[in-house]
Specification:
Structural class: mainly beta
Protein name: ABC transporter permease
CATH superfamily: Hotdog Thioesterase
Distance between the termini: 36 Å
Strand order of the largest sheet: 1-2-3-7-8-9-6
Organism: Flavobacterium procerum
InterPro entries: ApeP-like_dehydratase, HotDog_dom_sf
Number of strands: 9
CATH architecture: Roll
Strand content: over 45%
Number of domains: 1
CATH topology: Thiol Ester Dehydrase, Chain A
């Protein structure tokens, strides 16, 4: 089980600023991932100095997508694939519990583990269990279904 440490999330996701809600992958393997994200004042999901619920959910989705996304962005040798286009979305929020909202300047740690995965050549469906933390305080717990599909470049 190969683990990668401190990787730029952009190696595994198509998201870019201002909708990128993860800074770094701290650890990743075939069934789990940990990410970190610093909440900045100009973030699109900041309202009244708080990172709102939609931001926490998007951070969770992007964290979870890193496990599945790496299939499309890296080849068997770990080399980056060129000209890869993917589309992904949350197909279901099975459960969501938001305990607290972090503030501007906080760094959140998000941990996700794979519950199930259905991969095909062109798309992957998966269910992930996820928790977000601010230090020892739990911010969010959820189970999320994701759909990620390789698309043909335009």
């Amino acid at each position: 089980m190969e683990t990668t440490s401190t990787v730029d999330i952009q190696n595994y996701l198509p998201h870019r600023a201002p909708l990128l809600m993860v800074d770094l992958i701290l650890n990743i393997d075939a069934t789990s991932v940990e990410t970190v994200f610093l909440i900045k004042e100009d973030n699109v999901f900041v309202d009244n100095n708080l990172f709102i619920e939609a931001g926490l959910i998007e951070n969770t989705a992007q964290t979870c997508s890193a496990i599945v996304g790496k299939k499309y962005f890296l080849d068997e040798n770990g080399e980056e694939n060129e000209n890869v286009n993917v589309i992904g979305f949350i197909s279901a929020l099975k459960t969501v519990k938001i305990h607290a909202l972090p503030k501007v300047g906080d760094s959140i740690l998000t941990k996700a583990s794979l519950v199930s995965k259905f991969p095909t050549e062109d798309y992957t469906l998966c269910t992930m269990s996820c928790k977000s933390f601010l230090e020892d305080q739990i911010l969010l717990e959820c189970e999320i279904n994701l759909f990620i599909q390789k698309t043909i470049p335009a």
